[in-house]
Each structure stands twice: as structure tokens, then as C-alpha cells.
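Dataset card, provenance and construction

Sequences and ligand SMILES were collected as paired inputs. For each pair, a complete structure of the chain with the small molecule in place was predicted and serialized as C-alpha cells. The example below shows a pair involving zinc ion. Curators did not alter the output after generation; any descriptive sentences attached to a record were derived from the structure itself.
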Amino acid sequence: MIKLPEVGLAAAERFALDMLVDLARLVPAAPTFDVVSLELRDHPPRDLRGWVAAGWGIEVGDGIVRIPRGVLHAVIDVAGAAAEQRASERDRYSRVPASANPLVREGLERDPIVQRAALALQTATRKAAGRRAFRTVAAWPDGRRWAAAFTHDLDVVSWWPAFTALRLVELAAKRAFGRISRVAASAFGSLGFDPVFQGVTGVLNQEASARIHSTWFILCGTPTLKTVRAGDLTYRPESSKARGILAQVRAGGHEIGLHGSFATLEDHGAFAEQRRRLEGIAGAPVRGIRQHYVRIHPGVTEHAMTAAGFIYDTTFGFPDRNGFRLGVADVVPRWDAERNQRIAIDEAPFTWMDRALSKYRGVEDPAAWSRDALELAATAREVGGLWVGLWHPNLTPALGFPDAPPAYGATIAGVLAESPFVAPLDTLAEWRRARRAVRATAIRPDGSVELEAAVAAPSPFQLRLEDGAGKPAEAAR
Ligand SMILES: [Zn+2]
């Protein structure tokens, strides 16, 4: 538990402090409680590496922790994406390039440093508590210490030989002749079959045997020659083939989300239109979104997503490298730096994408992609956070990717070996929203704590507190 300053914070500082307290799993308590108080202190500014080296400048006293105001500004810049919102650079897809990200600039994108700052705050608060009551909220459902989400973007449904041809051109440019002949052999062997459907079925079978549920992001617009040539919309979601895939995904108990097409970036009304259309086809609520080609204008696009009724976005990963774009392996709220206000949508940044290494780093061995996935999963586990993996179901030998399906199997097995809580992203976002809203309302004479859960945890899970030793304590009713 922790008492937070009630006055003297700018809106952005309040947002950053609330985020740190949430990531630290500390329970906010009323000012009358005999628990640790948090105070802000002034400190000369530092760069991110400087703050990391200085342990974020957090000071511990008896019943008090002090955190530099400058740390809150760093949190807003990185996790609030304020630095990206100030950047004027754009790449050919109108994206803020990774080179404008403050973590990439300091070579820190593989480390969720904002979450580590929050954990340092948790440790300092535990130390400062002494004999005072101390509680954290349990991180994830079922007593799990970290979480993982497996996600898929359905980019390819129709015209599969064209995708194979494009991939052969890419492999030829890389002089990967061994792979070219294997792709060609698989593609010819697939004539008369449907490698797209085989790819989807393969992923679904792997997940069914691992007993996990994933999230599938589906493009939902009407393709034209222009969208096809741009690599944007290439299939009609109402086609019998797309409907067949959706039915299979739904039958497996997986979540359906929207893969926002290029049009959504400028035409914000398209979000609601595509969402409604997808709900009609899928016959299920669509609560999450990820932008095709990671096309998002930070601080702007999230407003339109919120207005269209999405509860979470999962676009904030890097298109060209793997890592933690917002400095967190977790679900965090969004910030509009220009209007200086919170945006009412949660972000579950994706950590790792199959194609990041092959398309942009020249690494064509799928086993190496999988090793990278597991390295980042280990980091997410270290901070008790969430790892979000993105695997494209079209990565099959006939579509240009020999050895890819077994690499996805190895990724699932490697992640599950470390016992995360695995669920579709809507469940994880809902859990985090409920966990963030837990408040301590009283400390009873016997030292036990009364808690209030303003938001219900997703059924059948229960919010819990943990004591200073991390042992289960009170549960929400
Ligand atoms: Zn896509």
C-alpha cells in the first residue's frame, strides 16, 4: 500500500505516477492510513541510462519514499509515448520510425526499464514500511507470476501464389537459394490444396494441443486493386474462405480482434465501420485492435480507437526489431501529450513478431526467431510482466517460409515451460483494468486489510492482495 500526494502534480506527472504505482502493484490508500507515503523530490535531469544507473534516484526513509520528479517526466516520454508524439520523422508508411524512439536512441529497447523503475519503487516501499502494513496486488490470475499472449494477424487469405511469388523475390534478393528451392517445391506440391487454410489449421492444432487460447486480428475492409498492390487489404472478410477461417478460430475458443486497414489511419470513422462489420461476420464482440503494418499516430489514433468502442490496442511494438517500445512488458493506459490528457484505452504492446528478424534483420532461420522470442519472454517473466508474441499463420513452406511451423511450436513450448498465465488479450486487458482499480479501504485491528475492487475481475478469476513476503493475503469478495 502507498499514500500518494494529493496536490502539486501536473496532469502528466499524475498520469506517470499512477502508472508507476500500478506497475509496482502497490495499492493506493487513503491519507489517514498508517502506511508508507510517497513524496516527489527535485533532482537535476538525467538521460535514461543515467536514471537506470542511479536506481531512478529513489530514496527510502522511515515510512516515506521519495522519487525525483524527473523520473515521472521520463515515464511520460517513454511509456506515455510523449517523445514519439513530439517526433516529426515519418517513414514511408507514415509511421514514427524506431530511430525516433527514446529507448532505441539509447540502446535500451530490449529492457522494460519503466517497469524496472516501478519494481524499484515497490522494493523501496517495502523497505520504508517497517512495521506498517504493506500489501501488493497479485500480478496475474491463478497465482501466476507472469503472463503471455499469443496473437496472429490474418494478412493472407486470397491469391496465395502471389504471396509466394513476392516472398521468392525477397529471398532472391537475399541470395537464399536453398530456401528458394524448398519454397518452390512446397508451392508446387500445394497446387490443388490451400496452403493458407493449412497454415491456419496448423497454428490452431498447435495451440489446441498446448491447450492455449490466442487472439486473431482480421482485416475487415473491401479490397481494391490499389489496396492489393499496397499490401493493404487483399481479401474480402465475407468470402467463404475468410468465413471458414473465422469459424475455425471461433470454434477453438480464440478471440477475434480487428486488424485496422490503411484507411483507418486518416479516416477515423473507418474504425467503427470495420469493427461493426467484423462483429457481424464473426458473431462475437470485437474488443481489441492491432493496426496492419503497425500504422499508428501515437496520441492521436488511440482517440479514434476509443471512440469506435475498442477496450485495448496492441499496436505498440516495433515493425523492424523486437523489444519493449514503451519500456514496459504489461498493459498500460494511453496518453495524449498535446491535449495533456489520458486516453481511455489500454495498450498491450507486442513484444516479438516473427517477421521482424527476417524482413528487417536478414535472419532467415526460424529457430533463431524462436530463440529471440524466448529471450524476451524470459525478460518479461523477470519483471512479472506480459509477453505478447505475434505469429503470422501464413508462415508456411508453400508460402515462402520453410521450417517456420516447427519454430512456432518451439516458441509455444518454450514460453509454456515457464508457467505463465496464458489468455486472449481481452481477458488480460480486463484483468489489468480490474487490478489497477483495487483500493485499500481500511486496516482492521488485527492488521488485515479491507480492499475494494471497483471493477470486477474477469470470471472466473479473483483479485488478491499479497503481504510483504509475497504470500497470498486478502481476496476481493
Ligand atoms: Zn498485418
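Derived descriptions for this record:
Residues 113-129 form the longest helix (17 residues).
The pocket of zinc ion is lined by residues 153, 155, 259, 292 (CB under 6 Å).
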